[in-house]
Design brief:
With about 375 residues, this protein is an alpha/beta fold. It contains 11 helices and 16 strands. Helix 8 (about 190-200) packs parallel to helix 9 (about 240-255) and helix 9 (about 240-255) runs parallel beside helix 11 (about 280-285). The structure holds alpha-D-galactopyranose. Alpha-D-galactopyranose binds near residues 53, 101, 102 and 103.
């Protein structure tokens, strides 16, 4: 790797799948790259434009090479990559460890080194690697190791996004495979139940995530509001802006990659505000990438996540995934601050952007149903 920092913090970008599915083409990618810059997303830290499934021809050519579908990408993939790069962004693509991708296009099984070289020649910077149509006799761990090795030696820095949905005990071998991120969950849908289920499924898996190898809870549905082409993902589904805010906060606190899934050419002000909150993004991008610990509440769907940041602050997220408004009392003892130490926490609210003051021993607050509070706390001497 030329860039020894590649994948140090969770990647941030946009991916075609959640909203557009099969309906992708050169224009969409170019317009989205334009929007990434003009909307301010790029300045907020979003970097990758990723084409998911359904980009290729149905067959490899006679020499076994993958080719872009000329109806969707008439100038080929290199031209798309060049355009994305001309905007100061990075370009991502998609393949699969099986014989076919999930949507039935050619997969990279037994073509790993050839495909890595093809992607490098097109100027690809990121590869999402799915897990469909894997031959039964093949061990998934071996196939991810293969593609990782191929990418790490293809002559170009390519971030490797392994997407095996948490199967095959992925937590125990993914670090060793060399992947930069690993999908730990099934596919997200544009509804609250899905957000809640995915987040809860990974709360006890935080110790497996860290710098250069991030637990990917799946792409964001923030701002989709039921606008997917795909019925299952959530055509006519959708969440409230507050639920999207909670979703974004969970993903940020849990160190998941922040890959946007909505149509970034048409974002509402509320969507922009959520996706570009610099204080919440800073928590996600903290250089140490420490997984949060959880402080439970007597109500099962209410919990606090605490993440130590590299400058000594604590990021504190109070989440209420339940259906009733709730009150909580956060005891500083649980975060390692005994009353006798003479220390307090100076709290800054990362959604209202206001200072809450200095608190000792406890912080008491209320959280709406499906809501959250994200605080950045600084340790201060109080006596
Ligand atoms: C799988 C992945 C999704 C998406 C689709 C494409 O379901 O988990 O994120 O890439 O395949 O077919």
């Amino acid at each position: 790797m030329e860039n020894k920092y590649l994948g140090m913090t969770p990647p941030m970008g946009w991916n075609t799948w959640n909203t557009f599915n099969w309906s992708i083409n050169e224009e969409l990618i170019k317009e989205s790259a334009d929007a990434m810059v003009s909307s301010g997303l790029k300045d907020a830290g979003y970097e990758y434009i990723v084409i998911d499934d359904c980009w290729s021809l149905r067959q490899r050519d006679e020499n076994g090479y993958l080719g872009a579908d000329p109806e969707k990408f008439p100038h080929g993939m290199k031209a798309v990559a060049d355009y994305v790069h001309s905007k100061g962004l990075k370009f991502g693509m998609y393949s699969c460890d099986g014989t076919h991708t999930c949507a039935g296009y050619p997969g990279s099984f037994e073509h790993e080194f050839q495909d890595a070289a093809t992607f490098a020649s097109w100027g690809v910077d990121y590869l999402k690697y799915d897990n469909c149509y894997k031959p039964n006799h093949m061990d998934g761990e071996i196939l991810y190791k293969r593609m990782s090795l191929a990418l790490r030696n293809c002559g170009r820095d390519i971030m490797f996004s392994a997407c095996n949905w948490g199967h095959d005990d992925v937590y125990h071998w993914i670090q060793g495979s060399g992947a930069h991120l690993f999908r730990s969950t099934g596919d997200i849908q544009d509804n609250w139940e899905s957000i809640k289920t995915l987040a809860q499924s990974q709360l006890d898996k935080m110790p497996f995530s860290g710098p250069f190898c991030h637990n990917d809870i799946d792409m964001l549905v923030v701002g989709m509001h039921g606008e997917s082409n795909d019925e299952w993902i959530g055509r006519l589904g959708g969440c409230t802006d507050e639920e999207y805010r909670t979703h974004f906060s969970l993903w940020a606190m849990m160190n998941s990659p922040l890959m946007i899934g909505c149509d970034i050419r048409n974002m509402s002000d509320a969507t922009k505000e959520t996706l570009m909150n610099p204080e919440v993004i800073a928590i996600n991008q903290d250089i140490e990438c420490r997984g949060p610990y959880i402080i439970p509440h007597y109500e099962k769907e209410v919990f606090t996540l605490v993440k130590p940041l590299s400058n000594g602050d604590l990021a504190i997220g109070m989440f209420n995934l339940g259906d009733q408004r709730t009150e909580y009392s956060l005891l500083f003892w649980d975060m390692g601050i005994p009353a006798a130490a003479g220390m307090g926490l100076e709290m800054h609210n990362c959604w209202t952007h206001g200072d809450e003051g200095v608190f000792t021993e406890r912080y008491v607050g209320k959280v709406e149903s499906h809501g959250c509070q994200i605080l950045r706390a600084k340790l201060v001497k109080v006596r």
